[in-house]
Amino acid sequence: MEEQNRQSSFFLTKMNLVRHHGMPDEYTFATLIKASSCSTALEQGRQIHSNAIKFNCGVDTYNEIEHYTCLVDGLGQAGCVHEAEKLIASIQFEDTGSMYRSLLGACRLKGDTETRTRVATKPLKLEPSESSTYVLLSNVYAAFKQWSEVADARRTMKMKNVKKMQGLVGLM
């Protein structure tokens, strides 16, 4: 709860700065969307995302993907896993592994086995050599005590010669 209060306070401070100092850039929008990921500020995160689109911030594909990924992450952390999945399905450009990794992390956090089963292989199809996907899948399967799937994920990673980057696990 303390973390949510801290994030909400950060979010409100940043919004006040934006109001008084003009138009934020695409990085500020991404930071604000991410900061609004707690449930108390989720609606503000949606509004920020809408404003980013309205004011053409993040018009290049990388920043647009980053904004959507932050929104998917925020929805997932707030317990809106199904809404996050619908958001990914509704975007106008090709979805990315990072969006599905955010969704899978939310499935693990919220115990949503149904969505997890449906989307588990999508990031692997989009980014088959991304080591963090295999690590996340292994952790998600372990959280649900699905030990044979944990072994399969690790075996597949080894078979495809995908190397885990040092320190990356701590970021997931």
Textual characterization of the structure:
GO terms for molecular function: RNA binding. Keywords: Repeat. This is Pentatricopeptide repeat-containing protein. One of its GO terms (biological process) is RNA modification. This protein is mainly α and 172 residues long. Helix content is 71%, strand content 0%. The chain has helices spanning 2-21, 26-35, 42-54, 61-77, 81-90, 97-110, 113-119, 122-126, 131-143, 147-159. It is globular and about 45 Å long. The two termini are 20 Å apart.
Topology:
Blueprint: H1 2-21, H2 26-35, H3 42-54, H4 61-77, H5 81-90, H6 97-110, H7 113-119, H8 122-126, H9 131-143, H10 147-159
Helix pairs in contact: 2-3, 2-4, 3-4, 4-5, 4-6, 5-6, 6-7, 6-9, 9-10
GO molecular function, one term: RNA binding
InterPro entries: E_motif, PPR_At4g14850-like_plant, PPR_rpt, TPR-like_helical_dom_sf
Keywords: Repeat
User: Between the first and last Cα atoms, what is the distance in angstroms?
Assistant: 20 Å
Ranges where pLDDT stays below 50 over 5 or more residues in a row are 58-62
Roughly what fraction of the amino acids lie in strands?
A: under 5%
Global structural class: mainly alpha
Molecular shape: globular
Mean pLDDT: 74
Give the biggest sheet.
none
Query: What are the secondary-structure elements, in order, as H or E?
Result: HHHHHHHHHH
Care to count the β-strands? Answer: 0
Helix share of residues?
over 70%
Number of helices: 10
**Rg from alpha-carbon coordinates:** 17 Å
